[in-house]
Design goal:
6-stranded antiparallel sheet, alpha+beta, 196 residues
Length: 196
């Protein structure tokens, strides 16, 4: 019985550590980039991929500047990942316009490519202005009788921005794999010094 409680405490501690993880940022020219530090191709999502299911991942990046009430910029996107059983490689498609996809990637390559797509323009943010950033990632949980993406969320041109905003306006479902990473207070000057 003690072993069970130790295991539960260990798993809970790992989950808390995952959610408390600090977001690693880089400044490249006038763009804020997110380091690929979250291994979201894991657990039940990876099992679904290996069973030939496509798995959508919704991501939202937000930057606040000056104070935590002023949203400087935000970016929402959906990435649909599939796994080729014969080639043992992944394909990922960016679902919002402009749509694009890459294939023949390993898991780390998918995670890195998705993070690159989430980079954000920092034009207008002064070098000494404080800012904070947050990155949210949610694996879509398949809904019965509603198709892969849910009713009305995807058209021929991809998922709509309104659908993504709606997704992130609600808390994640209890069984939904999700990650939230936040940065400490930073300035662009500090971030650029770290990278030099």
């Amino acid at each position: 019985m003690k072993a069970w409680w130790l295991l539960a405490a260990f798993v809970s501690g790992m989950a808390l550590a995952m959610f408390a993880e600090e977001l690693i940022l880089r400044a490249h020219e006038n763009r804020l980039e997110f380091a690929p530090q979250v291994h979201f191709l894991s657990g039940t999502s990876l099992a679904r991929l290996h069973n030939a299911a496509e798995v959508p991942f919704d991501m939202k990046a937000t930057i606040w500047s000056g104070n935590r009430n002023h949203v400087f910029a935000h970016n929402e996107d959906r990435f649909v990942v599939s796994f080729d059983i014969w080639e043992e490689s992944f394909k990922v498609t960016k679902a919002t316009a402009p749509q694009k996809s890459v294939s023949h990637l390993n898991a780390a390559g998918v995670e890195s490519w998705c993070m690159n797509q989430m980079s954000m323009d920092l034009a207008g943010l002064s070098g000494n202005e404080p800012f904070w950033a947050r990155l949210e990632i949610r694996a879509e949980v398949p809904l019965r009788d509603s198709g892969l993406f849910g009713r009305g969320s995807v058209s021929e041109s991809g998922i709509s921005l309104a659908s993504l905003i709606d997704i992130f306006s609600r808390p994640p479902q209890a069984e939904q794999p999700h990650w939230t990473l936040t940065s400490p207070r930073l300035t662009l000057d500090e971030l650029r010094k770290r990278g030099s």
